[in-house]
Amino acid sequence: MKTKLRPHLKKFALLSSTGLLLRVYSGIYRLYLLRRLGAEPFGLIGMIFPFYRLLSLVITMGLPTALVRLIAIEKAKNNTAWILQVKKTVSTLVAVTAFFLSLLVFLFSSPLGSLFYNDTRTGPLLKYFALAINLNSLCLVYRGYFHGLDRIFPLALAELCETLGETLFILPFLFFTKPTPFRVETGARILACSYLCGEIVCLCALFLYDHLRVRPHLTATASATGAVPGRKLSSLLRSSFPLLAQQLILAFARIAESILLPKLLGRGGLSATEIAQQLGEYWEMATPLIFFPLIFFTPVSTLILPATARATVRKNLPAFFRKLRWLLGGAFLYSLGVIFLLLKLATPLSLMLYKTTAATRYLPFLLPALPFLVMNNLFLPVAEGLGKQQFLLRATLILIFIKTGITTAFVPLPAFGLAGAAWGVTISQALLFCLLLKETFFAAAPHPKWFFFFRAKIFPYL
Length: 462
Known about the structure:
mainly alpha
């Protein structure tokens, strides 16, 4: 058993140590930028980023996520020739699509910024993100490719290189300039340029790793085993379309939120400067405190998707679910402990990190979402590995409507403001957890009447 677990423990250790290192570094790095540039430039970037993610999803068409499951299945069949061919085909398709869409965004950046955000400062920023989207789309294809092959090192390498690229651009620039306050437009452009540099370094690292380490091994294996019939591109696209639809809905929801929240806050009587300031505090100060505890479970979720696909092929789901049940129990207890610590240390932690307590006013509304966020982070790759894309699409639609309704009802009220948006996050995550639990454990486990972490024989009345 120890021999079987050792490779998984090594992968977990690599991902968790890398993730922890990057989170700590990124936290210090972001704090420095917040203090140097202010919260308003981050608010402008936060408005644009959902639109950028939407374009990335349209370009990749859900293929990176579909590649993870299908490559894991074909790898279990030792079909390396198909893996090489499909990676080449998907990369070409994504690169051509990215070029044309990014060109349109670059040419019409100013009208798009005025139309979507009613703020002319967002137009020039869209040009930087139009250039970055070509690189980001290919990085996503490479990550799906390595993830399906169960190659964890390049996934960690991509995160490190992306952060390194941003740092190499922005820190020397800030260190060698006068410590005077930057204009909001200048600060936002600095952030956009650093993101572009990070994508350049990330793509170069993934490309070199593939050509120097992975591709020679796969080519030799394919030559030795010969070609084995695999799925056609049309089949891959059919598998990716439900994922694309789900991701598009989420991206549209984020765009709608980035457009809707400023309008709702404006209806509550806030000025444009106050809106950008509060959005920066909510998105860049309060929300990271909630998502930071996920760092210990994100590496596990990365390993779960291909493991679920392999367990499905090998018809070993009962044993897989037994292991996952204990993992979910530990995740639940962990999240309760984190909530208690954050409630006790919220004020000194916020003062230490941000020199302000502005973030603490949103924590009472966001903290109840943490247990559901942690467990959903484990449930989602299970559902994807089981091939339940249609279910994920339906669940996403339902939750978006609920979250948007709560946000629209409460954010314009001066007594709530962005706390209403935080309530929307908490309620939607709780509902998503219930739906995922029913569709994975209740539907696919050998004992469908399990209640959370206990067998049905303990609760025979369920």
